[in-house]
Structure formats: C-alpha cells, structure tokens
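The methods section describes the discrete structure representation at length, but only in general terms. The central task, working out the structure tokens from the amino acid sequence alone, is never made concrete. Nothing conveys this as quickly as seeing an actual entry. For illustration, here is how one protein appears when written out as sequence plus structure tokens:
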Amino acid sequence: MVDLKRIFIKGGIISPSELKQVTSYAESLGLDALHFGSRQDIIFPFHDDHKEVGNQNAKLSTSMISDLRYQNIVSSYVSSDIFSSTTWLNGATYLYIMESFKYLPQLKINIVDPKQQLVPLFSGQLNFIASPHEDYWYLHINFPHWKAAAYYPVHIYSWDIAKVSKVIEEIYLDAEDVDELFMLLNALLETNSRTIESNLNISFKPFPYYEGMNKMGINQYWLGLYWRNNRYYLSFLRDFCDFCLDNRIGKICITPWKSFIVKGIPKASKLGLEKLLGKAGINIRHSLLELNWHLPVNDDEALSLKKYIVQKFDQNDISTYGLTFAISQSNVSHSYFTSIVIEKNESPKIGSNYEARATYNVLYSDNFDPNSQKYIVYALDVDKLELSGLLMELSKLYFEQFGNENSDEIKQENEEEAPEKNDVYQCSDCLTVYSNIYGDEKANIEANTSFENLPLEYSCDVCDAPRSSYVKVKM
C-alpha cells in the first residue's frame, strides 16, 4: 500500500446510486471494503497495481471528487430531523447551500448547526455556524498564518456562503488578520450581511448515541450503522443501496465518526431492513464506549489500543456518557474535536536492533467541551498500561463537574475574549457599513475621516440612500 485515496462527498451527503457507483469503482480495484474519513469522505487503500485499471474516475459521478488538491465540505445535514437543531435550519437549507458551491474548495469548510453535537464545529478553516437569525451564520476563521482564530465581524447570509468562501480563498493569504480580510472582501464583493448583535454562545451537550434503528416521526425510522474496524464491506453496501433505491430513500449521510446514517426509512420496510442486516451479520447495538472514538484511518495500532482501553472500561463498569476520545500521533498537526486526546509519542531508537516502548500523552479539552478549542495536558510520557487508569480518572473528574458550569461566568468569559467593538455607521436600507478607519475609497473619502465630516451629499455606494439613512452602531 502506498497511499490512501479519498472521494469527497459534498456535505457528507450521497445518494444510494452514487454510493453504488463508488462500490463498483472499489470492486474494479480489487478491494472488498471502503473506509469513511473524519471529513465525511470515503477512503480506500490504493496500491501500485491499481494504476493498471486505468482512469476509473470517469465512472464516478461529477459530484464526487478524488483530486487531493481539494477539500471536502463538512456539514451537519446528517443531524437534521433526528437531533436537536436550530429552529430555522432544516435539511433543505443545507442542500441549497451545497448546490450553490459551483467551484471546488481548497480550504476546509464546515457548515454546521451549534445545537447538535455529532459534527464538529471548528475543525475547518472556514466554519459557518448557524446564528439565531434565519438564514444568517457566524463565520469562524482559522488560518495557519494567523496568530489566532477569529470571528468575521458580520453574519453571512445563507446564499452568500459559497461566493464569500470562493473570494476568501482567492485573497486570504494577503490578509494578516480578520480586519484586513473584512476590508479586502468588502472591496471585491457585495453581500447581504447582517450586524452581529451577540457573541456566539455554545452550551455543552453530551455526545449523542447515533447507532441502531430509531423512530423518526410517526411512520418512519432512521438507522445509524457503525463497524468497529471501519471496514464497510462492498457486498453489503451494494445490497443496502438497492434497498434504499427500492424504498425511495434519497440520501445516505456519512458522519465524522466513520459511520453513516440513513433517514426516512418507511415503517413498512423496517422488518425487511432488519432481515438484511441480520443476514449480513451486522450488529447495531454497540456500546457507547465504542461509538465515541475518533481514530486515524487504516491504523491497526490505534485500533488495537482503542480495543484495549474499551475492554478495561467495560471490565470496570466505567461510564463515558457525553465524552469523546481520539488517538493521534503527537508529531502530526491536528485539529482536535474530542473531549480527550491520546497522543502517541515518537519512539526513540535504541541501537540498530531495539526500539523503546511507546509512550503517550493525555490531554483533555477545557470543561471537557471540544468546542472550547483549548486543551489541557493531564499526563506526559506514560506507558500503555497506565492509560486506562488515567482515562478512568478523567471520566470521574468529568462527572464531578458535569452540569455545574456557571452560565454567567461562561458568558462573561466569552465577552472578555470577544474583539473590541467600535462605533461605525450603517445604512438602514441595505446594511452597508461606513467606518472612519477605512473611509470610502469609491467616494474618494480618505481613511480616518469621521462620519460627521462627510459631505452633506454623501450617499450609500450600494443603494444610493442619503447620509441621513445611516445609524450609529457598535461593531
């Protein structure tokens, strides 16, 4: 094996017929199984002799991209209609936004609902997070060349997400911070943005159980499928796609936890599906001790370590309700999105024939909330035999403080971390902003010109509203 090849599934949303195409492609490469990735993509091992198969990409739908220059768009469409969600946000909104992407992004883009816990909010470089206002989103930006992540100063309109992302991709290397990016983007693009009235406040919710057959409304069910080895066998996938096509199920949703969910299963077909799962020998009742792990793809060592720790948890009757875990290499750059992280250290070489035992670091997120984006070191350079005990200690620490967070303190902390607000003037007709910091280049108004010193005949560049239409706001 020389590589892992990815097929990008926009938003983690794939039709049964498209998934059947992917299984046929994998079969033509001589494979018997597929893997799912953490960005809701499909991954399979690729050998040198696969090149003899020819240009198999031609067999794939144009909506599925395997070119590694591009990044898959992550979305929480998978959570809509089955988990808690923002009131105005539904499956159709996600689909319309995905359809508006007419280009292939090279930046990691997340389009997510802060009310759900299944899909990480901050694992992208452009994280669009639904606001309380219908069709408006916070934009959290995290670029490697910035000193710190930041929020864009206005809400982004749903139907502007694709074009805003495209322009940002073209200019972001020229911007050293969010203020400079805001200025550059406004000079190139007109958008239907909205003033941010309050900071994004995300309340902690325990990680959900996402497996098995579950009721969805009165006459429908949803099914979550998980395999502990992350090998989804092609023979079953092909039969499962046929079942979905026969029952007019239009979408299959890949999760970031290397599993998939199918919604809208007719009540009359529930028994037939259970028979299909039974004939394939598929277990749909794994313990939450297993479902809440994020592992590298095709990493047998990480899978073995997870099995070892889960076995210790089970033997000690430990609950991990609400917690999530990840295993990674400490020398690799990661964007973590779990409560607890186990990092494997690089092993030092001891002579030519010997290698030292592996050691691990244990980290946990602030308040055990992955959305805090802040990780605290709990232990360094510990042996594998010590890991399960340390993780059980952490789980007890988690339950001791579970539900005790003071909401006023959290709100105050968020306000202290928020960028300083300045007085600006905003057109009440189209919401265009005039800031004395930047002036108005189109109207030949120099930077550092206060609004009071603008000419009386000054008008909005976008809608031609008079100066009297502007109102003073904080931004």
Summary: The domain at 423-474 is CATH 2.20.28.10 (Rubrerythrin, domain 2).
